[in-house]
From TrEMBL:
Domain called VanZ-like: residue spans: 25-126
Transmembrane segments: 12-31, 51-72, 84-104, 150-170, 408-428, 435-456, 462-482
Native source species: Chloroflexus aurantiacus (strain ATCC 29366 / DSM 635 / J-10-fl)
Name recorded for this polypeptide: VanZ family protein
Keyword entries, A-Z: Membrane, Transmembrane, Transmembrane helix
InterPro entries membership: VanZ-like
Matching Pfam families: VanZ
Entry superkingdom: Bacteria
């Protein structure tokens, strides 16, 4: 009985985090890029872009095969049944993943992946489960002995230091989502960059920038140039005349480049015709940094809603790579780039993409609102169904890996779980009782999830609380279960 109990224990302990890892890696809508050019012969023969894809799918399922083999052996399943069970269960998991990937953006389903995943599980079960078991048993025994000798108060102090440091880190990286790095050297451009590149053919009725985030009521109330000016913008321009009339404390005269045309829809720009402020809009950056929020409003009509190349509608920046805030047409979609401490200077990642904003050439009133955490778009006074919430996870990860639009929000949830993982140590039987460390483990998720609120109201805090609490609960349960009595044979 001790032999079977130990095998089931190891199998479940490895199975739970493995399933979680496999789910995150295979079902999250990551945007993959090829690390090197594809091998045409290999791709023709296998359907894969390169051998690295197959190697990843094999390695990913190796721990799953080991966990299933241990669990089935612990349930007294005979050896032929263990082998059949590993193949059937791992193939079922792999097939379910491929079916799910059919509906996930950025994912590509392939039956060959099922073969690779199942092969990896078989490799783990056949070649690694047996030799790894004595090592796992021995390592577990040493950890168990070390835990029995460590006073609970030492663990309490260590976890308290970790929790304090993690809370500081979350608040620090949350500040990286605030619009506090805008440049005072940038000009305002309408219809192209200041060097005449990336033209946008269309019409502009008016535009305005505010040092606060709009609500839905605000967006509905701003329908005309008069409405925009009445709500005290930092700058506003009415394009019903040429040159446009500027209003607001930071407005500067707009100078025509080429020959923009004046129509009933506003000023027509595009193809060697655009407008640019005569000098940088100095002072705007300091005002935005003071309030930590902004809203950019623009009434525009796309002349070519089906164009595939990007065109700069409103660009408060310099050139095509430097932006404080930019509205860009990309086909029927609106692409938004804004400068934050988390973004990269070169291309202001991550960009925000709002789908189907320009289905036709009719005028649209756009209001892009950002309160330091949540970016919302209002189209003709109505909230666009897409919105993005930035958190400390995006700011941290974007320093090494460019975050894609559909990943915004996911990295913060992952960060909350990762920094709460050490709190699961509270479930081990430390000498002198477990209650002091458990106290830290209980309050830890609450502190981590509420840390962004020290900087700005963060709607991701609820998800962070769920992720961190689940991490601590499952981790403590596994730690307690694994460190009970030890009695296992090292034969399968």
């Amino acid at each position: 009985m001790g032999h079977h109990y130990a095998l089931r224990r190891y199998g479940v302990a490895l199975l739970l985090p493995t399933i979680l890892l496999v789910g995150m890696v295979t079902l999250y809508p990551f945007a993959f890029t090829r690390p090197w050019p594809a091998n045409p012969i290999f791709e023709l023969m296998t359907g894969l872009s390169h051998a690295f894809d197959m190697a990843q799918n094999i390695v990913l399922f190796i721990p799953l095969g080991m966990a299933l083999r241990w669990f089935l052996a612990g349930c007294s399943v005979p050896l032929p049944g263990q082998r059949a069970g590993v193949i059937l269960l791992s193939a079922s998991v792999a097939l379910g993943i491929e079916v799910a990937q059919l509906t996930i953006p950025g994912r590509t389903a392939a039956l060959l992946d099922v073969v690779a995943n199942t092969s990896g599980a078989a490799l783990g079960a056949w070649w690694l489960a047996q030799p790894m078991l004595p090592l796992v048993e021995r390592l577990g025994f040493w950890i168990h002995q070390g835990v029995r000798m460590t006073p609970a108060w030492v663990v309490f102090v260590g976890l308290a230091i970790w929790l304090a440091g993690s809370t500081w880190m979350v608040t620090r990286w949350q500040r990286a989502t605030l619009p506090t790095t805008w440049s005072d050297r940038y000009t305002l451009q309408i219809g192209a960059a200041d060097d005449g590149r990336r033209f946008w053919p269309g019409y502009v009725g008016f535009t305005a920038l505010y040092n606060r985030a709009f609500t839905a009521d605000d967006a509905q109330a701003v329908q005309t140039p008069g409405d925009a000016i009445a709500r005290q913008p930092l700058f506003a321009y009415d394009f019903s005349e040429l040159p446009p009339a500027g209003n607001g404390p930071f407005a500067r005269p707009l100078v025509a480049q080429g020959r923009p045309t004046l129509t009933e829809s506003g000023v027509g720009v595009g193809y060697q015709r655009w407008l640019m402020s005569s000098e940088p809009l100095r002072g705007v950056a300091a005002e935005i940094a003071r309030t930590r929020a902004f809203t950019l409003v623009a009434q525009v009509a796309a002349r070519e809603p089906d164009r595939t190349t990007e065109g700069l509608i409103v660009n408060f920046g310099r050139g095509i790579d430097g932006h404080n805030i930019s509205l860009i047409q990309a086909g029927a979609d609106l692409l938004v780039r804004m400068r934050l401490p988390l973004t990269r200077v070169a291309d202001d990642r991550p960009p925000l993409r709002f789908a189907d904003v320009f289905p036709d050439g009719q005028p649209r009133l756009l209001a892009l609102s950002y309160d330091g955490a949540v970016a919302r778009l209002f189209v003709d006074g109505q909230a666009h169904p897409q919105w993005y919430t930035f958190g400390p996870g995006e700011a941290l990860i974007n320093r090494w890996l460019p975050v894609q639009t559909h990943q915004i929000g996911g990295w913060t949830i992952a960060l909350a779980g990762a920094i709460c993982l050490p709190l699961a140590l509270a479930g081990l039987p430390w000498r002198g009782g477990r209650w002091p460390p458990i106290t830290i483990a209980v309050v830890g998720p609450l502190l981590i999830s509420s840390a962004p609120w020290l900087v700005i109201a963060q709607s991701l805090s609820g998800g962070m609380l769920v992720a961190s609490s689940a991490t601590v609960l499952v981790g403590c349960t596994l730690a307690y279960w694994l460190t009970r009595s030890y009695s296992a044979d090292d034969n399968l």
